[in-house]
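Sanity check record (used in CI):
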Amino acid sequence: MIRASLLACGLSAWALGAAAQSPLQVIAQQPPGSGSDAMTRAWAECAGRLMGRPVVVQNKPGANGILAINYLKGQAADGSFAMTIGMSQMTITPYVHTQMPYDPLKDFAGVAMIGSSPLVLVVPAGAGISKLADLEKVARSQAGGLNFGSPGKGSPAHLLTTALTDAMHWPATHVPFVGESAGLTALMGQQIQAMTLVLNTAAPQVKAGKLVPLAVFASQRSAVLPEVPTIAEAGGPAVLARPSWIAVVAKKGTPPEVIKTLNDATNQCYSDPVYANSMDKMGVTLMRSQPADVLGFAERDIAVWKPLIDKLGLATQ
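Expected output for Bug family tripartite tricarboxylate transporter substrate binding protein:
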Protein backbone atom coordinates (compact mmCIF):
# COMPACT_ATOMS: atom_id res chain seq x y z
CA MET A 1 0.00 0.00 0.00
CA ILE A 2 2.86 2.35 0.85
CA ARG A 3 4.53 1.55 -2.46
CA ALA A 4 1.27 2.20 -4.32
CA SER A 5 0.83 5.49 -2.49
CA LEU A 6 4.35 6.62 -3.36
CA LEU A 7 3.80 5.64 -6.98
CA ALA A 8 0.58 7.63 -7.07
CA CYS A 9 2.35 10.67 -5.61
CA GLY A 10 5.12 10.29 -8.16
CA LEU A 11 2.66 10.15 -11.03
CA SER A 12 0.83 13.20 -9.66
CA ALA A 13 4.07 15.18 -9.44
CA TRP A 14 5.03 14.05 -12.95
CA ALA A 15 1.63 15.10 -14.32
CA LEU A 16 1.90 18.51 -12.64
CA GLY A 17 5.39 19.00 -14.04
CA ALA A 18 4.25 17.98 -17.51
CA ALA A 19 1.34 20.43 -17.36
CA ALA A 20 3.70 23.24 -16.34
CA GLN A 21 5.95 22.54 -19.35
CA SER A 22 3.16 22.15 -21.90
CA PRO A 23 1.53 25.23 -23.49
CA LEU A 24 -1.20 26.82 -21.39
CA GLN A 25 -4.42 26.97 -23.42
CA VAL A 26 -6.29 30.15 -22.52
CA ILE A 27 -9.91 30.29 -23.66
CA ALA A 28 -11.25 33.70 -24.66
CA GLN A 29 -15.04 33.82 -24.53
CA GLN A 30 -15.41 36.76 -26.95
CA PRO A 31 -14.36 36.93 -30.64
CA PRO A 32 -11.08 38.37 -31.96
CA GLY A 33 -11.12 42.15 -32.07
CA SER A 34 -13.30 42.55 -28.98
CA GLY A 35 -12.17 44.41 -25.88
CA SER A 36 -12.17 41.19 -23.87
CA ASP A 37 -10.00 39.48 -26.47
CA ALA A 38 -7.49 42.35 -26.44
CA MET A 39 -7.19 42.15 -22.65
CA THR A 40 -6.84 38.36 -22.82
CA ARG A 41 -4.01 38.54 -25.33
CA ALA A 42 -2.16 41.24 -23.39
CA TRP A 43 -2.40 39.13 -20.22
CA ALA A 44 -1.40 35.93 -22.03
CA GLU A 45 1.72 37.55 -23.51
CA CYS A 46 2.86 38.98 -20.18
CA ALA A 47 2.03 35.96 -18.01
CA GLY A 48 3.59 33.55 -20.49
CA ARG A 49 6.76 35.61 -20.70
CA LEU A 50 7.13 35.81 -16.92
CA MET A 51 6.40 32.10 -16.42
CA GLY A 52 8.62 31.04 -19.30
CA ARG A 53 5.71 28.94 -20.54
CA PRO A 54 4.01 29.16 -23.95
CA VAL A 55 0.46 30.51 -23.74
CA VAL A 56 -1.97 29.94 -26.60
CA VAL A 57 -5.25 31.88 -26.83
CA GLN A 58 -8.29 30.09 -28.24
CA ASN A 59 -11.40 32.12 -29.07
CA LYS A 60 -14.66 30.31 -28.33
CA PRO A 61 -17.35 32.99 -28.75
CA GLY A 62 -21.07 32.37 -28.56
CA ALA A 63 -24.05 32.47 -26.19
CA ASN A 64 -22.33 35.19 -24.13
CA GLY A 65 -19.61 32.87 -22.91
CA ILE A 66 -21.60 29.68 -22.40
CA LEU A 67 -19.89 27.90 -25.33
CA ALA A 68 -16.46 28.77 -23.92
CA ILE A 69 -17.47 27.68 -20.43
CA ASN A 70 -18.80 24.35 -21.67
CA TYR A 71 -15.54 23.85 -23.55
CA LEU A 72 -13.52 24.50 -20.39
CA LYS A 73 -15.71 22.17 -18.35
CA GLY A 74 -15.03 19.43 -20.90
CA GLN A 75 -11.25 19.63 -20.40
CA ALA A 76 -9.11 17.92 -17.79
CA ALA A 77 -8.41 19.91 -14.63
CA ASP A 78 -4.68 19.29 -14.97
CA GLY A 79 -3.39 22.83 -15.31
CA SER A 80 -3.32 22.85 -19.11
CA PHE A 81 -6.37 25.11 -19.47
CA ALA A 82 -7.51 28.45 -18.10
CA MET A 83 -10.08 30.99 -19.24
CA THR A 84 -10.53 34.73 -19.07
CA ILE A 85 -14.01 35.52 -17.89
CA GLY A 86 -15.98 38.71 -17.38
CA MET A 87 -18.29 40.04 -14.74
CA SER A 88 -21.08 39.09 -17.12
CA GLN A 89 -20.35 35.36 -17.17
CA MET A 90 -19.57 35.25 -13.45
CA THR A 91 -22.51 37.26 -12.11
CA ILE A 92 -25.24 37.70 -14.73
CA THR A 93 -25.38 35.14 -17.53
CA PRO A 94 -26.26 32.05 -15.45
CA TYR A 95 -29.12 33.91 -13.73
CA VAL A 96 -30.89 35.04 -16.90
CA HIS A 97 -31.74 31.38 -17.55
CA THR A 98 -34.46 29.65 -15.57
CA GLN A 99 -32.26 26.56 -15.63
CA MET A 100 -28.72 27.70 -14.89
CA PRO A 101 -26.32 26.46 -17.61
CA TYR A 102 -23.47 26.48 -15.06
CA ASP A 103 -22.76 27.59 -11.49
CA PRO A 104 -19.97 30.21 -11.38
CA LEU A 105 -19.35 29.65 -7.67
CA LYS A 106 -19.02 25.86 -8.00
CA ASP A 107 -17.64 25.15 -11.47
CA PHE A 108 -14.56 27.40 -11.37
CA ALA A 109 -11.39 27.86 -9.37
CA GLY A 110 -10.43 31.51 -9.18
CA VAL A 111 -6.95 32.36 -10.47
CA ALA A 112 -6.59 36.15 -10.51
CA MET A 113 -8.36 39.42 -11.22
CA ILE A 114 -7.02 41.22 -14.28
CA GLY A 115 -8.75 44.59 -14.03
CA SER A 116 -11.89 46.66 -14.33
CA SER A 117 -13.21 49.02 -16.98
CA PRO A 118 -16.27 51.28 -17.16
CA LEU A 119 -18.98 50.84 -19.76
CA VAL A 120 -20.19 53.66 -21.99
CA LEU A 121 -23.64 54.24 -23.50
CA VAL A 122 -23.14 55.38 -27.10
CA VAL A 123 -25.19 56.22 -30.19
CA PRO A 124 -24.13 56.54 -33.85
CA ALA A 125 -22.87 59.91 -35.05
CA GLY A 126 -25.26 61.74 -37.33
CA ALA A 127 -28.39 60.53 -35.54
CA GLY A 128 -29.06 63.90 -33.90
CA ILE A 129 -28.61 62.49 -30.39
CA SER A 130 -26.26 64.17 -27.90
CA LYS A 131 -27.83 63.49 -24.49
CA LEU A 132 -30.16 61.09 -22.68
CA ALA A 133 -33.14 63.38 -23.24
CA ASP A 134 -32.64 63.04 -27.01
CA LEU A 135 -32.52 59.27 -26.68
CA GLU A 136 -35.80 59.34 -24.78
CA LYS A 137 -37.48 61.16 -27.67
CA VAL A 138 -36.29 58.42 -30.04
CA ALA A 139 -37.56 55.70 -27.71
CA ARG A 140 -41.03 57.25 -27.50
CA SER A 141 -41.34 58.11 -31.18
CA GLN A 142 -41.41 54.62 -32.72
CA ALA A 143 -43.17 51.30 -32.35
CA GLY A 144 -41.17 48.92 -30.18
CA GLY A 145 -39.32 51.79 -28.58
CA LEU A 146 -35.55 52.16 -28.59
CA ASN A 147 -33.65 49.43 -30.45
CA PHE A 148 -30.51 48.82 -28.41
CA GLY A 149 -27.83 46.21 -28.95
CA SER A 150 -25.59 44.19 -26.66
CA PRO A 151 -22.85 41.54 -27.01
CA GLY A 152 -25.41 38.96 -25.94
CA LYS A 153 -28.19 38.12 -23.56
CA GLY A 154 -27.02 38.43 -19.98
CA SER A 155 -24.07 40.68 -20.76
CA PRO A 156 -23.47 43.71 -18.49
CA ALA A 157 -24.37 45.86 -21.49
CA HIS A 158 -27.73 44.09 -21.80
CA LEU A 159 -28.52 44.37 -18.10
CA LEU A 160 -27.34 47.96 -17.66
CA THR A 161 -29.20 49.26 -20.71
CA THR A 162 -32.34 47.33 -19.78
CA ALA A 163 -32.14 48.66 -16.22
CA LEU A 164 -31.70 52.19 -17.59
CA THR A 165 -34.69 52.02 -19.94
CA ASP A 166 -36.78 50.49 -17.14
CA ALA A 167 -35.81 53.17 -14.63
CA MET A 168 -36.46 55.94 -17.17
CA HIS A 169 -39.74 54.28 -18.28
CA TRP A 170 -38.65 54.15 -21.93
CA PRO A 171 -40.11 51.55 -24.29
CA ALA A 172 -37.24 49.50 -25.69
CA THR A 173 -36.31 46.35 -27.64
CA HIS A 174 -33.13 44.40 -26.97
CA VAL A 175 -31.16 43.18 -30.03
CA PRO A 176 -28.45 40.67 -29.00
CA PHE A 177 -25.31 40.07 -31.06
CA VAL A 178 -22.46 37.54 -30.88
CA GLY A 179 -19.84 39.80 -29.34
CA GLU A 180 -19.23 43.55 -29.34
CA SER A 181 -17.74 43.74 -32.83
CA ALA A 182 -20.93 42.61 -34.57
CA GLY A 183 -23.03 44.98 -32.48
CA LEU A 184 -20.64 47.85 -33.10
CA THR A 185 -20.89 47.34 -36.87
CA ALA A 186 -24.69 47.40 -36.67
CA LEU A 187 -24.61 50.49 -34.46
CA MET A 188 -22.36 52.50 -36.78
CA GLY A 189 -24.58 51.40 -39.67
CA GLN A 190 -27.58 52.74 -37.71
CA GLN A 191 -29.29 49.35 -37.77
CA ILE A 192 -29.70 49.81 -34.01
CA GLN A 193 -29.93 53.10 -32.16
CA ALA A 194 -27.84 52.67 -29.02
CA MET A 195 -25.43 50.26 -27.36
CA THR A 196 -23.44 50.04 -24.16
CA LEU A 197 -19.77 49.24 -24.89
CA VAL A 198 -16.66 48.68 -22.81
CA LEU A 199 -14.49 51.78 -22.74
CA ASN A 200 -11.64 50.49 -24.92
CA THR A 201 -14.12 49.50 -27.66
CA ALA A 202 -16.00 52.79 -27.57
CA ALA A 203 -13.15 55.30 -27.16
CA PRO A 204 -11.43 54.90 -30.58
CA GLN A 205 -14.75 55.23 -32.41
CA VAL A 206 -15.73 58.24 -30.30
CA LYS A 207 -12.40 59.95 -31.03
CA ALA A 208 -12.83 59.12 -34.73
CA GLY A 209 -16.19 60.89 -34.71
CA LYS A 210 -18.19 57.76 -35.51
CA LEU A 211 -19.96 57.41 -32.16
CA VAL A 212 -21.42 59.89 -29.67
CA PRO A 213 -21.04 58.98 -25.96
CA LEU A 214 -23.95 59.83 -23.69
CA ALA A 215 -22.87 58.51 -20.29
CA VAL A 216 -20.28 56.42 -18.48
CA PHE A 217 -21.69 53.78 -16.13
CA ALA A 218 -19.33 54.77 -13.33
CA SER A 219 -19.28 57.01 -10.27
CA GLN A 220 -16.40 59.07 -11.67
CA ARG A 221 -15.60 60.31 -15.15
CA SER A 222 -13.04 58.37 -17.14
CA ALA A 223 -9.63 59.87 -17.91
CA VAL A 224 -9.92 58.30 -21.37
CA LEU A 225 -13.13 60.23 -22.17
CA PRO A 226 -13.15 63.01 -19.55
CA GLU A 227 -15.84 65.04 -21.31
CA VAL A 228 -18.43 62.27 -20.97
CA PRO A 229 -20.72 62.59 -17.92
CA THR A 230 -21.29 59.80 -15.43
CA ILE A 231 -24.67 58.11 -15.59
CA ALA A 232 -25.84 60.18 -12.62
CA GLU A 233 -24.60 63.43 -14.16
CA ALA A 234 -26.41 62.55 -17.38
CA GLY A 235 -29.71 62.19 -15.50
CA GLY A 236 -29.78 58.43 -15.02
CA PRO A 237 -29.85 56.32 -11.83
CA ALA A 238 -26.62 56.47 -9.78
CA VAL A 239 -27.09 52.81 -8.79
CA LEU A 240 -26.10 51.84 -12.34
CA ALA A 241 -22.53 53.08 -11.81
CA ARG A 242 -21.06 49.58 -12.00
CA PRO A 243 -17.84 48.96 -13.98
CA SER A 244 -17.22 45.62 -15.65
CA TRP A 245 -14.26 43.45 -14.68
CA ILE A 246 -12.33 40.56 -16.14
CA ALA A 247 -10.61 37.69 -14.34
CA VAL A 248 -8.80 34.43 -14.98
CA VAL A 249 -10.37 31.16 -13.85
CA ALA A 250 -9.58 27.48 -14.23
CA LYS A 251 -11.71 24.39 -14.00
CA LYS A 252 -12.59 23.36 -10.45
CA GLY A 253 -10.02 20.85 -9.27
CA THR A 254 -7.04 22.41 -11.06
CA PRO A 255 -3.90 21.85 -8.91
CA PRO A 256 -3.40 24.75 -6.47
CA GLU A 257 0.29 24.91 -7.43
CA VAL A 258 -0.68 25.79 -11.01
CA ILE A 259 -3.18 28.38 -9.80
CA LYS A 260 -0.57 29.97 -7.53
CA THR A 261 1.94 30.17 -10.40
CA LEU A 262 -0.62 31.88 -12.64
CA ASN A 263 -1.68 34.24 -9.84
CA ASP A 264 1.94 35.18 -9.10
CA ALA A 265 2.57 35.88 -12.78
CA THR A 266 -0.55 38.06 -13.01
CA ASN A 267 0.48 40.13 -10.01
CA GLN A 268 3.99 40.50 -11.45
CA CYS A 269 2.45 41.77 -14.69
CA TYR A 270 1.00 44.62 -12.64
CA SER A 271 4.56 46.02 -12.40
CA ASP A 272 5.50 45.28 -16.01
CA PRO A 273 5.61 48.68 -17.80
CA VAL A 274 4.74 47.30 -21.24
CA TYR A 275 1.73 45.42 -19.91
CA ALA A 276 0.59 48.26 -17.65
CA ASN A 277 0.84 50.74 -20.53
CA SER A 278 -1.15 48.52 -22.91
CA MET A 279 -3.89 48.04 -20.33
CA ASP A 280 -3.95 51.76 -19.52
CA LYS A 281 -4.50 52.54 -23.20
CA MET A 282 -7.50 50.20 -23.11
CA GLY A 283 -8.92 52.05 -20.10
CA VAL A 284 -8.35 49.08 -17.78
CA THR A 285 -7.60 49.66 -14.11
CA LEU A 286 -5.31 46.82 -12.99
CA MET A 287 -6.12 44.87 -9.83
CA ARG A 288 -3.73 42.93 -7.60
CA SER A 289 -5.47 39.89 -6.17
CA GLN A 290 -5.34 36.45 -4.59
CA PRO A 291 -7.16 33.47 -6.16
CA ALA A 292 -10.00 33.70 -3.62
CA ASP A 293 -10.75 37.28 -4.68
CA VAL A 294 -12.27 36.12 -7.98
CA LEU A 295 -15.18 34.31 -6.37
CA GLY A 296 -15.35 37.06 -3.75
CA PHE A 297 -15.96 39.69 -6.45
CA ALA A 298 -18.49 37.37 -8.08
CA GLU A 299 -20.45 36.91 -4.85
CA ARG A 300 -20.50 40.68 -4.27
CA ASP A 301 -21.93 41.46 -7.72
CA ILE A 302 -24.34 38.51 -7.78
CA ALA A 303 -25.95 40.10 -4.71
CA VAL A 304 -26.67 43.17 -6.86
CA TRP A 305 -27.44 41.71 -10.28
CA LYS A 306 -29.58 38.69 -9.38
CA PRO A 307 -32.29 40.71 -7.58
CA LEU A 308 -32.32 43.13 -10.53
CA ILE A 309 -32.66 40.25 -13.00
CA ASP A 310 -35.58 38.90 -10.96
CA LYS A 311 -37.19 42.36 -10.72
CA LEU A 312 -36.98 42.93 -14.46
CA GLY A 313 -38.11 39.39 -15.25
CA LEU A 314 -35.14 38.72 -17.54
CA ALA A 315 -34.81 34.99 -16.82
CA THR A 316 -35.97 32.84 -19.71
CA GLN A 317 -35.47 29.24 -20.87
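Confidence is low (pLDDT under 50) at residues 1-16. If this sentence no longer matches the regenerated C-alpha coordinates, the check is flagged for review.
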